[in-house]
TrEMBL record:
This is Ras-GAP domain-containing protein. One of its GO terms (cellular component) is cell cortex. Gene3D superfamilies: GTPase Activation - p120gap, domain 1. One of its GO terms (biological process) is negative regulation of Ras protein signal transduction. It comes from Cryptococcus floricola. Residues 173-389 form the Ras-GAP domain. Residues 47-74 form a coiled coil. Residues 1-20 have a biased composition (Low complexity). Keywords: Coiled coil. It holds the Pfam family RasGAP_C.
Length: 756
């Protein structure tokens, strides 16, 4: 919203004085991040149907943001399913999972049948509508609940909170309510933490909340916009090895020497301790240029992140601000460096670094990076973390060689972390948003039955702590709802559109009433509304909008006498407002309402710029939406593989209860158990084929799904494996994977030894 223009000197000194006084008052209010003037303009626009270019662009952007919010939730749920199945799939491979666990896995793979299951009745739906309106509009209840639940319960609750209750990730009111909840949770965390060093570091519900928050749409958009190009340019160099761990460098060096010469000199024995590897002059010569290059790359990442300050989502910056504010209040003696380390612990440890280490999980790259770039990204993340946090080299002494990067950039980093906190608060606008929400007819959330029932169950479980007084609204609603229904099978876990409304508040029909206070007079309200209506009229009549100066009186008359009933209504209303403001001395008809004229002109310029920003933002978000959809398809592909695999397990289990392993081969179109051959997998697209062509001889083949020939084969003799075990060589290197020797021996015995 543009600031009001300073009125020119008028011959009518009393009027000019009034103009100047009002201008100063309005200008002072404009210094707030969200002025009442700006908020009123937003409110006044709600009942106008506009079809200009800005309006169309805004509608397109709103639709896009809504789709991103919805898709983000779907991806979050799919990622949870994939993680759960991935943790269980190893048990399935060995066919040692209990029957109830198998059913649970099978249910996780079932699609929801929208026609099955039962809906809550109309009375229950009304009660849930009241309950979830209360939970959404009074975040303290959810904040308390998040601190009370166990770690095993937090993920499901966070899904409901982050992607359902406050799921409209680009809507101002919901975002601000969610941040209010964060403030409450963080305040409690600071109150209960006894040692400064343990603040925000443990894996607690609070830390999980902070991590989950960064996975919402705005955070993902930021990561893609800031990090994607930098990471993609790095991973193009697949063979660039920047390993600086002396032990690994030594092992790679002697392996290369052995490949080149066929043997190793006596001076380069295998299995040396780290200090011997670090002292080797050849190893040092390899590492030194790598350190230089790593610091150059890390500097480029750091510069990119620092330059992106203005792009960091408001919510993430506001959380940083709360961390700083709470730390200063709770620990007044804490140094600026210590406070910055806490801010960095959130911003880098929980937001930036996970995306650098696993960019494929954040949709920043296509596929998993190659081995060497992946290691480089890990080292870069460690360097940034050491810079943002207090560096610790206890476990990785070799990282000390990168300490110059920390020393050279510490001041720069702390300046950035402090700058992150420099954002305004939102309490003034949130109060108005809450008033407006009461008069909305379309406030609703999309929620699954299990989310509904799980939240209900958790609230009932902790009701005595959350609402000890039986007169509290939350207690009244929970008492009326009674016990929570049990979780429904996944197939019946339908989504419902739950309208939200309060049973204790009367919707506010007149927004002016809600704005009246000691600091905002009726003249202020009229002035704001008049300006807003003129802007709407100009947007509705673009042929007039380009003419300067704007003749406000003629514009109002033209609208009042037009054939469009909406314009007529607005024209008549603004004429009355002009007369009232003129009579009050706020504006002056004699100078053609110069103060109002200047502000309306400035507002139209602002709206022109706003259209360009909306179009640019939409283009950026189109890319984000496409990436999120691609990731959704990838996750669905993983689930489809699990489905096929589960079917394989079922077939094998039902046909041969005594068989070990889950391999099924096809012979002449019929499934048949193959003699002396075992298939382990598939685990994603890769599986092992183990055969025993002769007693004591085994062939392990690594296959990629869809390829006839194996990626590699290894011929193993039982005595070779026993010798490795005797020499305490625990790992068997297959180039792409490493196998544990004792476990491989145990597996061979289990699969191929004859039953006595």
């Amino acid at each position: 919203m543009a600031a009001p223009a300073t009125p020119s000197t008028s011959t009518h000194s009393p009027s000019a004085s009034v103009h100047s006084h009002l201008s100063r008052r309005l200008t002072n209010r404009m210094t707030n991040r969200y002025s009442v003037n700006a908020m009123y303009s937003l409110a006044a626009e709600q009942d106008i149907e506009l079809e200009d270019e800005l309006s169309r662009a805004q509608k397109k952007l709103r639709d896009l943001k809504s789709r991103i919010s919805s898709q983000s939730k779907k991806n979050f749920v799919l990622e949870r399913d994939v993680r759960y199945l991935d943790s269980r799939i190893a048990l399935l491979i060995q066919n040692r999972m209990a029957a109830d666990e198998k059913r649970q896995v099978a249910e996780t793979l079932e699609d929801v049948d929208e026609d099955s299951g039962l809906w809550p009745d109309e009375k229950k739906m009304g009660q849930y509508a009241n309950l979830f309106f209360l939970l959404q509009s009074e975040p303290r209840h959810i904040a308390s609940l998040c601190r009370l639940v166990s770690l095993s319960e937090i993920d499901t609750l966070l899904q409901t909170v982050m992607f359902t209750l406050y799921g409209n990730q680009y809507e101002q009111r919901e975002e601000h309510l969610l941040l209010t909840m964060f403030q409450s949770v963080l305040s409690a965390q600071f109150e209960t933490t006894t040692e400064f060093g343990s603040l925000l570091r443990a894996n607690t519900p609070v830390s999980r909340m902070m991590t989950t928050y960064t996975r919402r749409g705005p955070g993902q958009s930021y990561l893609k916009g800031v990090l994607a190009d930098r990471i993609n340019s790095l991973i193009e160099h697949k063979n660039l090895n920047l390993e600086i761990n002396p032990l690994k460098v030594y092992e790679q060096m002697i392996q290369q020497i052995e490949e080149d010469t066929g043997s190793l000199p006596p001076s380069l024995p295998r299995g040396v301790p780290p200090e011997v590897a670090a002292a080797n002059s050849d190893v040092q010569a390899i590492i030194i240029p790598r350190i230089t290059m790593l610091m150059e790359i890390a500097n480029s990442f750091l510069s990119t992140i620092i330059d992106s300050l203005d792009s960091v989502p408001y919510g993430i910056r506001w959380i940083c601000k709360q961390i700083r504010s709470l730390t200063r209040r709770k620990y007044p003696d804490a140094t600026d460096a210590s406070i910055c380390s806490l801010i960095g612990g959130f911003f880098f440890l929980r937001f930036i670094n996970p995306a650098i280490v696993t960019p494929q999980a954040y949709m920043l790259v296509d596929g998993v990076p190659a081995k060497h770039p992946r290691r480089t990204l890990t080292l870069i993340a460690k360097m940034l973390q050491n810079l943002a946090n207090k560096p610790s080299y206890a476990k990785e002494q070799y990282m000390m060689s990168l300490n110059p990067f920390v020393e050279n950039n510490k001041a720069r980093m702390n300046q950035f972390l402090n700058a992150l906190c420099e954002v305004g608060d939102f309490y003034e606008s949130l109060e108005l948003d809450q008033y407006m929400a009461l008069s909305k007819k379309d406030l609703q959330i999309n929620i699954t039955l299990n989310e509904l029932y799980n939240t209900h169950s958790l609230l009932m479980q902790h009701m005595d702590v959350l609402s000890p007084n039986d007169k509290h609204h939350l207690r009244i609603l929970l008492d009326e709802l009674g016990a929570a229904p049990a979780q429904v099978p996944r197939k019946e876990n339908r989504s419902i559109e739950l309208p939200l409304y309060s049973r204790w508040e009367t919707p506010i029909q007149d927004l002016s009433t809600s704005l009246m206070s000691d600091s905002v007079t009726q003249n202020d309200i009229n002035y704001m509304e008049t300006k807003s209506i003129f802007v709407q009229l100009l947007r509705s009549m673009p042929t007039i909008a380009d003419k300067r100066p704007i003749n406000l009186g003629a514009l109002a008359e033209k609208a009042a006498t037009s054939k469009d009933p909406v314009l007529v209504r607005r024209g008549i209303k603004v004429q009355a407002l002009l007369t009232e403001l003129d009579a009050a001395g706020v504006i002056d008809r004699a100078d053609e309402y110069k103060l109002m004229q200047d502000e309306v002109s400035a507002e139209m310029v602002h709206l022109g710029n706003a259209k360009e920003k909306v179009v640019l933002e939409a283009r950026s978000l189109e890319s984000v939406y496409k990436t999120i959809c691609d990731h959704n398809n990838y996750l669905r592909g993983q689930l489809e593989q699990y489905k096929a695999y589960l079917q394989n397990v079922r077939l094998t289990s039902s046909k041969d209860k005594g068989a070990t392993g889950v391999g099924v081969v096809t012979v002449n179109g019929k499934e048949k158990k193959q003699v002396d051959k075992k298939v382990l997998g598939p685990r994603m697209n890769i599986y092992f084929m183990i055969t025993s062509p002769a007693p004591g001889t085994f062939i392990i083949a690594l296959h990629f799904k869809g390829r006839d020939k194996p990626i590699l084969e290894m011929d193993l003799k039982i005595d070779d494996l026993l010798e490795k075990q005797k020499d305490q060589q625990a790992m068997l290197d297959l180039e792409y994977v490493q196998l544990n020797v004792p476990k491989v021996l145990a597996l061979f015995n289990k699969l191929f030894s004859k039953k006595r």
